[in-house]
Design brief:
CATH class of one domain: Alpha Beta
Strand content: 15-25%
CATH superfamily of one domain: FAD/NAD(P)-binding domain
Largest sheet: 6 strands, mixed
Number of strands: 28
Radius of gyration: 26 Å
CATH architecture of one domain: 3-Layer(bba) Sandwich
Shape: globular
Oligomer: single chain
Length: 546
Amino acid sequence: MSCRAAPWSRPSHIAGPRVPTPARPRFALGSRNLWKNSWKIGAGVSNMFALPSTLFRCMASSGSGDGDFAQSTLTDEAAAPFPLYSWPDKQRPRVCILGGGFGGLYTALRLESLVWPNDKRPQVLLVDQSDKFVFKPMLYELLSGEVDVWEIAPSFTELLKNTSVQFVRDSVKLLRPSDHLRRKPGEPCTGGVVHLESGTVIEYDWLVLALGAEAKIDVVPGSAEYALPFTTLEDALRVESKLKMLERKRFGKSSPTIEVAIVGLGYSGVELAATISERLKNTGTVKAINVQTTVCPTAPQGNRDAALKVLESRNIQLLLGYFVSCIKEAPTSDDSSSTVTYSEVDGDHRKLILDLQPAERGLKGQTLDADLVLWTVGSTSQIPRLQPPDAPYVIPLNGRGQVETEETLQVKGHPRTFAIGDSAALRDPSGKLLPATAQVAFQQADFAGWNLWAAINDRPLLPFRFQNLGEMMTLGRNDAAVTASFIEGLTLEGPLGHAARKLVYCLRMPTDEHRVKVGISWFTKAAIDSLASVQNAVSNTLTGSS
């Protein structure tokens, strides 16, 4: 997901189910049983995805209504090669949410906030490979020192401690939905199962796919080996470590300068370029490369103009109309002073060379030197590699590997499976794919929570309608650009935009408790910075007058 979110919208945690409205932007396969042959263990044949054929026999429902959620029984438990996740209650609906980003976590919190009949309140399980929720739009502030890790990456344990939501730290290995299979009238059954890398199998009634996307950096020769992505907390901490190491090597020396190359000038690339250039000041140069001849081509005009003004005023070399064809190590030089080297865990690596090729007529190819290369273009969906090997198209995907969904956010052909965020390929009324941004995931989480409530309680589901509220971007420690879509032509820049952006993001933190903690921390830091600025101004005035 792009580290992008828009202002003035945060998920609501209300006391009862409320229909999201535009005014409040809170917001096939046939009948062949694909399990029949693939889940039986043949004599003497190992099957890594096999489960005993008796594992998922459904109990006859003892209720009289159509909405009963009968649980399956494990009739051959001793023969099960994988441990089953044990749900606390054997009767209440089971909701499994895969992915703890904006879409997944906020869907879980939305479900927790709704009012449910006692027998219909679902058991919610959140699965994520990390133990922390990451507020990705503020990863850049880790590089500028404006925020601490705990502020933008609180643990799931802390966020969910006052809820009934269960959390499991694990990676998803395989999806096996069964809600696309035809059932006999009145036959209750589960929605499917999820295999985790640890070997645990989760049987569920309802599934939410919110796995997001992964950085795709194996695009050109050398990019996977030498370039660093910037999409996760681990990525940000690694970039911070590299910058500190380069700054230590450069400390006290007049030359050579630190050279950082950034590939891609969408929002992420621009925010990285602005943040790192401000941090390095005169000790380094940022070389920003973009295949297009402008920056942030999809951004509002106000944000694009503000970004260009900042980039051109700093020590940034803009290389527009170029693409990187290769990244390699610089040749060994006898003159050690001509090459800046830095160390990694597995050894020393010399300065890098980027080969640039023109994407526009009239430009010539060139090469660049860099101490650090950051790659901000390209992403890939996780869903394709999670499909069952014996049924690789059981979940419908588009050409980008995103899940095809209905307007209700249900996966096409799978009434008990929802997909949101970067995992989903949902189009607006004009037929255009919705962007993979935090703003979209925020709003989809609100609708997904409501539609799960509606589906479990046999109520009509609502079609998702995206409300574009505007866009924000950081341009430094005291600089940002905020464009609101509902006020045409208005863009807040500089310190005012910076304050507005931080206020909006503070209000969007997942829980009230964390929101208060972060707000107090940021207010305290701002007060200390303001006091320090006043002291410096007074000191400079007294020094000048004397």
